[in-house]
From TrEMBL:
Cyclic nucleotide-binding domain span: 22-110
InterPro entries: cNMP-bd_dom (IPR000595), cNMP-bd_dom_sf (IPR018490), RmlC-like_jellyroll (IPR014710)
Protein name per UniProt: Crp/Fnr family transcriptional regulator
Domain of life: Bacteria
Species of the source: Zunongwangia pacifica
CDD domains reported for this sequence: CAP_ED (cd00038)
Pfam assignment, any one: cNMP_binding
Length: 192
């Protein structure tokens, strides 16, 4: 698993040997809340196996904001960085094997990473990638129909459609499960 991290953050071997002890490997069942909305994030999770969703409460309805799969890193970034209450809940969808690192150790890694140009560049790129994803998702609610949002999801992240329950996908797309079923039926008819 650490080979995936090493590829994303190209520290030298000495740094990685120091950092390996910062991480704890855990296994959690599906439907485990890793961070509750309103609590302060003190951990970052790296996914070895499984799937996680990030969601928030909107007047009693949970709205799925993002999905994370193997090889991804997940946290409530603003809460973790600024020590403020999280605006989202982080929850496992499938049983997960995770590598967890606490704030103090992660802060140390990040500060050392910024001293190494190549690693700093990778960190900045990953932050921009996350921002670009959020921007595209938000803009799609303005410019795309629900059907187009579903087609975009199939094209960009087909594994999500294959692995994640329909009610979470519908929530992510901003529609009901009934509306999602209609879209899928319509697309199936058009394929014939």
């Amino acid at each position: 698993m650490f080979d995936q991290f090493k590829n994303k953050l190209p520290f030298d071997e000495k740094h990685w040997n120091d950092y390996v002890g910062y991480f704890k490997r855990i296994q959690v069942p599906s439907k485990t809340t890793l961070l509750q909305e309103g609590k302060i994030s003190k951990k970052v999770f790296f996914i070895e196996k499984g799937c996680i969703r990030v969601w928030f409460n909107n007047n009693g309805n949970d709205v799925t904001f993002q999905f994370f799969l193997e090889g991804d890193r997940v946290s409530s970034t603003e809460s973790f960085k600024k020590n403020i209450p999280s605006i989202v809940t982080i929850e496992t969808i499938e049983p997960c094997t995770l590598w967890v690192i606490g704030k103090k150790d992660m802060d140390k890694m990040v500060s050392e990473a910024f001293e190494i140009p190549e690693v700093r560049e990778k960190l900045i790129d990953s932050l921009f990638d996350r921002n670009i994803h959020y921007m595209k998702h938000c803009l799609s609610f303005i410019k795309d129909t629900p059907q187009q949002r579903y087609l975009n999801l199939i094209q960009e992240k087909p594994q999500i459609v294959q692995r994640i329950p329909q009610h979470y996908i519908a929530s992510y797309l901003g529609i009901t499960t009934v509306h999602l079923s209609r879209i899928k039926s319509k697309l199936a008819r058009e394929k014939k």
